[in-house]
Automatic annotation (TrEMBL):
InterPro entries: Aldolase_TIM, DapA-like, Schiff_base-form_aldolases_AS. It holds the Pfam family DHDPS. CDD domains: DHDPS-like. The lineage of its organism: Bacteria, Bacillati, Actinomycetota, Actinomycetes, Mycobacteriales. Belongs to the DapA family. The keyword Lyase applies. The keyword Lyase applies. One of its GO terms (biological process) is small molecule metabolic process. Its EC number is 4.3.3.7. Gene3D superfamilies: Aldolase class I. This is Dihydrodipicolinate synthase/N-acetylneuraminate lyase.
Amino acid sequence: MSTDFRGVIPPVVTPLTETGEFDRDSYKRLIDKLVDAGVSGLFVLGSSGEVVFSTDARRREIIAAAVEFAAGRVPVMVGCIDTETLRVIEHAKVAQELGADAIVVTAPFYALQGLEEIERHFRMVKQAVDLPLFAYDIPVCVHTKLPGSLLVKLGTEGVLAGVKDSSGDDVAFRFLCQDNEKAGHPLTILTGHEVVVDGAYLSGADGCVPGLGNVDPVGYVKQWQAYQAGDWETVRSEQDRLAELMRIVFAPEDIQGFGAGVGSFKTALMVQGVFASNTMPAPVRTLEGETVDRIADILRATGVLD
């Protein structure tokens, strides 16, 4: 099993039963689907994996299942996301205990702090847990944009193994890739911006973490392989098709944000027969009725549903 964390590493969506329990059977079907499609790894308990909706017991349940179902075929990255450093370290130690291959950590996000404290946060996590540490740059949720200079510094010093960039800031992303190259490429840089992965690859990204990859992992793997072969026409054309598929997130007309995005992914997986239910975590509403039909129509039009 490779642990260089390059390529397509989907943020695995967490299935729930209609009563809100963790659905192990659906989770296994999804992980088998992803691995069989040729993904390079799995990222569990990210934003798409409902980390902030999950109790400590639920987090443990998800990690253990992911490691069990991956069965050493691909590495498992685990989101250890919480408000402040000591809580993150607790989650990271559990992830290590349960067999995680890497951990993914945001900046602190309740008692907002300056860059000096954020740098110390990452250093303390790395010191506490001997696993590759990825910084998760998602300012829309944690209210801090991680500067490229800090990330490259921590990469050069061996604190960070890489970055999962979900900032949506393509200019900063390109500068990060350039500065990482100038420093000798200490960081593995992954984009979470699934609609413009082609642009990220042009910038020099080492892979992608696409939520939409739960629905169509084959497409993202095809795009990655084309990138490795220098086949930029296929990289672009596959991205165009995936962008059309991403329009499932606009199918809900009265739900926004997480409910529309992850809700659409879950609904697509249900329509595909991977999930038994598209149940969302409370208090988010589950998509139903005509919205499900609209999502199914888009899946057919983009070739991921017969």
